[in-house]
Amino acid sequence: MELYNRTQIQDVVTLDHAALDAVETGFRALGQGEVVQPPILSMAIEESNGEVDVKTAHIRGNDRFAIKVSPGFFDNPFIGLPSLNGLMIVFSAKTGLVEAVLFDEGYLTDIRTALAGAIAAKHLARSDSRRAAVLGAGVQAELQVAALRLVRDIDTVDVWARDTDRAEAYAARMRERFDDLTVNVHGDIESACREADVIITTTPSKSPLLNASHLPTGVHVTAMGSDSPDKRELDESVMTRADVFVADTRAQSETNGELKAWAGRTPPFEVRELGQVIASGQSPRTTRDQITVCDLTGTGVQDTAIAGFALTRLM
């Protein structure tokens, strides 16, 4: 059994096309029915304002599978500790023996989450997309744009966040990271989204932020902030306005994602799954003017895919 820390993992796993291909291959296998993926195990630790999520999946034919343990203790910043942490345990799919423990501290989750956004845009956004609107100013607000640039030639980012100082700091970081990127800070969501080709929502909001009036013609929306029962970023009108709605998995979207809006009801639109879209080899976007939406809640197959990819580069 091998042990690897975050620094070792960061040295070999970045936002690149090889990592994107690995995660996309996992989604494709999911769409083809070649993945065993149990529901998320989630446990609240209320007295410490914490929770722990466990995700896993096995891709049939793969030599390895991963189990990810992801704690979130949201008072930690008050005592100088990160709120998110975690590790991935990689097992042999032939013997069940532990092959490696990846003490990534949540790094691989950040990477696979950003890559999922890029994969959604690859299959749903217009090929000539150049301008992205980002709601939020945290880690995923940065990584989603970085990953998006693997599949679309994004040259302008419009950012909105509740905290204007954080939005300004985000803009400064992005300009420093990408010297060819124009970054504009906006005081409201409407102006941030007005000229967007792609809108990315990256917030922990518990009430909808984006509504149909914010959507320009032909835009693609990637919503990745709603990953638990108490979070929502999209108003129902966004989904009913869309011509195409895709979820990473319908079941998770109904419990943790944006389909919670139709709890106990049947949505008045077709729900597709990202893996099935990829496996079909054909984008459901058929015209420039269509509006597409993808709801990403985070899946175990992404964790197995990125953990396996990391281990091939580490060993």
From TrEMBL:
InterPro entries: NAD(P)-bd_dom_sf (IPR036291), ODC_Mu_crystall (IPR003462), ODC_N (IPR023401). GO terms for cellular component: cytoplasm. Transmembrane segments: none annotated. Pfam families: OCD_Mu_crystall. Coiled coil: none annotated. Gene3D superfamilies: NAD(P)-binding Rossmann-like Domain (3.40.50.720), ornithine cyclodeaminase, domain 1 (3.30.1780.10). This is Ornithine cyclodeaminase. It comes from Kushneria indalinina DSM 14324.
